[in-house]
Amino acid sequence: MLTTNAAADAVPAAIRIPDRREAVVRDVVLAWRRLIGASSGKTVVACSGGADSVALLLALRSVTRDLVVAWIRHPMRPVEVVATEGERVRVLADALGLDFETDSVALEGGNVEARAREARYEALASIARETDAAWVATGHHADDQLESMIMGLLRGAGPAGLAGAAPRRTLAPGVTLIRPLLGISRTDAERLCADAGWVPCEDTTNADRSRLRAALRHGPLRELATIRPDGPRRAARSAALMWELSELVEEAGAALVGDAVTWNRSYLRSAREVVVAAGLRQAAARLLDGRGRDGLGGRQLDPVIRAIKDHVTDPRVFEWTLGLRVRVTVSRVGLYLKGEA
Question: I need a surface site. Which of 27, 210, 272, 285 has the fewest CB within 10 A?
């Protein structure tokens, strides 16, 4: 890891730290304070150099210097482009009088985008631990939420999948990921950068319409923005409500399955399908010591839930990923590791 300590206290005239009383800045700061609660300590701001993460950094800098700017290098884009962006983020950190940290990640096999995201979070958690920071803040905003909600709708997701990105979640022991920008739009972020006199970097891969998110962003959602300019902010509110709903479903699912891995079939049949699905996911995660819960989607859950709900009396067995098996009989439903049943 390379580290540059920014010693300058004064911010050059070319960069204007926003007034904390400005509406967008106030919203971001209030969200940040709500997410960290009564806790204190440093916040690592994950900054790619794009408008969203730069806006987050500027807003938080208006109220605190207890920040660490983190930039993560990964091999998915041209080396010269990435190097230029990293240098610009370092310059921005210096201009704001903040410490700058950088790390590199390597990608090996699997879903490249998913692996890159996972590797970045691992690197950010490492930076947080090394700098004694309890929080890692990212620049996901309301437009991202709207895109994620529509993508979830297109794949037939449940409440959690329709809620977009979580406002807050554990990233590593002692490190919490927070997203204070979820209530503001991409346009808000771009305006905040312009008002500060800073030109953000642009990731050209975001224009690759072979990716569903980019296709939505540059196609139907761009058209929608001309009809409902405030759509992303309103969608962000819906996402927040969906997160509350998903938490209620998770609580109901936990109460339904308890600590067991086998259940009376009529007992599960009496519950709502969304609650049964949540309970089965939790039971599976328990059997696998927390692994694989996100991999259990409708393709695997739906046939099992239909079998629980119907009136077929013949035993049926369903093979799930990660070595799991579900057995549905006339009176019982059981979840097992393969080889156990």
Answer: 210
Over residues 73-104, the pLDDT tens digits come to: 876 666 667 778 889 999 999 999 999 999 98
Per DSSP, the three-state class of 233 is helix
DSSP-derived secondary structure letter, 188: H
Has this prediction a pTM greater than 0.70? Answer: yes
Spatial distance between the Cα atoms of 326 and 177, rounded to a whole number of angstroms: 34
The string of pLDDT tens digits covering residues 195-249 is: 999 999 887 667 778 889 899 999 999 999 999 999 999 999 999 999 999 999 9
Q: Which residue has the tokens 């808000």?
A: 188
Phi, psi of 329 (to 5 degrees): -115, -175
Task: Write out the DSSP string of 258-292.
Answer: TT-SEEEHHHHHTS-HHHHHHHHHHHHHHHTTT-S
Torsion from C-alpha of 83, 88, 93, 99, nearest 10 degrees: 10
3-class DSSP state of 16: coil
3-state secondary structure 134-159: EEEECCCCHHHHHHHHHHHHHCCCCC
> Which domains does the chain show, CATH number per domain?
2-237 (3.40.50.620), 258-337 (3.30.465)
Q: Give the list of residues 6+ apart from residue 215 with CB closer than 8 angstroms, or none.
A: 209
Nearest alpha carbon to residue 306 among 335, 337, 269, 281: 269
Of residues 54, 294, 10, the one with CA closest to residue 191: 54
Say if strands 42-46 and 67-73 run parallel, antiparallel, or are unpaired: parallel
Give 302's contacts (C-beta < 8 A, 6+ positions apart).
none
